[in-house]
Design brief:
Blueprint: H1 2-27, E1 40-44, H2 78-87, E2 91-98, E3 104-106, H3 127-131, H4 160-166, E4 171-176, H5 181-191, H6 196-199, E5 202-206, H7 208-217, E6 222-225, H8 226-239, E7 253-257, H9 269-277, E8 281-285, H10 299-302, E9 312-315, H11 318-321
Parallel strand pairs: 1-2, 1-9, 2-4, 4-5, 5-6, 7-8, 8-9
Antiparallel strand pairs: 2-3
GO molecular function: phosphoric diester hydrolase activity
Protein name: Glycerophosphoryl diester phosphodiesterase
Pfam family, one: GDPD
Length: 327
């Protein structure tokens, strides 16, 4: 009986040892070839005015707390997108809002009071009414003493159609800011009219309900929502050590908080290689995932990433980050 117990114990130890070696080898970046080339750079809202993230809430008017302007661009405008692309952006993130005449305009807030000389919500105005507003009206860097962009933002709020036509070869990350299922239906109706090669350049993320609608209507479209991100990460943390990836982890997008990333099996190189094989794009954002995400906006921020990191990077300062990678 004692011999049987000793034999069982010895086999258990060997099993655990073999399992440990397998997990280590299968998930170590030491045994994964580093990605070639520079990281994919995502320009958040184009090249735009920056602001302090300290104490920010859902209803904070960020236009009232911008830093001293270093350039003339306003977020989500064609000039800001063009500047970001020229600076070296591989992908540009834009925010969409629905209009009264069933269009989409590119604008961050669902209300107009913070940034513009208008009031109310975007969906109560037609496209022409919104484009007549001054979207630079509310920006101030000195608590309202001066407004450097007032009078300069008229006719700068583009439609989604105008953006996609102006940049026919650019990849965009489209952000649906609400959790309204009807916006998902409206977006699906719009995107279904685009050719397949253009659809491949687009990714849509946002509220759970509109993204669920898009995934059902356009299964080939790259999408992400808070629900899909959480589900995908939980599944990966549970079984990713085996190297197996379920179908729902394929052809998607993951926004990984930098504080969460080191806890993912195989981070960084093995993880990125697995996601590449699954055609899933990985974008690292600042923060721990519990609050508002920040960008990698300075050389010091980039130093927090693993050496030779080759995934995607979220930045508000493409003009500062792209030169670090000779873009």
């Amino acid at each position: 009986m004692k011999k049987i117990k000793r034999l069982f114990k010895r086999k258990s130890i060997w099993f655990l040892l073999v399992l440990f070696v397998f997990i280590y080898v299968n998930n170590s970046s030491l045994f994964a070839k580093r990605g070639e080339g520079a990281p994919l750079l995502l320009a958040h809202r184009g090249l735009a005015q920056t602001f302090s993230m300290e104490g920010i809430e859902n209803d904070t008017c960020t236009a009232e707390r911008i830093n001293q302007p270093e350039y003339p661009y306003l977020e989500n405008t064609i000039p800001s997108m063009e500047a970001a692309i020229k600076a070296g952006a591989d992908l540009v993130e834009i925010d969409v809002q629905p209009t009264k005449d069933h269009n989409f305009v590119i604008f961050h807030d669902w209300t107009l009071d913070c940034r513009t000389n208008g009031q109310g919500v975007t969906r109560d105005y037609t496209t022409s009414e919104l484009q007549a507003l001054d979207i630079g009206y509310g920006y101030t860097a000195d608590e309202g003493k001066t407004f450097p962009f007032r009078g300069k933002g008229i006719d700068l709020m583009p439609t989604l159609d105008e953006v996609l036509n102006y940049f026919p070869k650019t990849s965009f990350l489209i952000h649906i800011k609400s959790d309204d299922e009807n916006e998902g239906i409206q977006m699906a109706n719009y995107l279904e009219k685009l050719p397949a090669n253009r659809l491949e350049q687009l990714t849509v993320y946002g509220g759970d309900q509109p993204i669920a609608t898009l995934r059902e209507r356009l299964p080939s479209l790259r999408t992400m929502s808070k629900a899909t991100l959480k589900k995908d990460l939980i599944i990966y943390m549970a079984i990713g050590w085996t190297g197996y990836l379920p179908t729902n982890l394929k052809h998607g997008q993951l926004h990984i908080p930098e504080k969460v990333a080191p806890w993912l099996w195989g981070w960084p190189n093995r993880f990125l290689k697995r996601m590449d094989n699954a055609d899933t794009r990985v974008i690292v954002v600042g923060g721990n995932g519990s609050g508002f995400s920040s960008g990698f906006d300075t050389p010091a921020d980039i130093k927090r990433l693993p050496e030779d990191y080759s995934g995607g990077i979220w930045t508000n300062r493409i003009d500062k980050i792209a030169p670090l990678y000779n873009k």
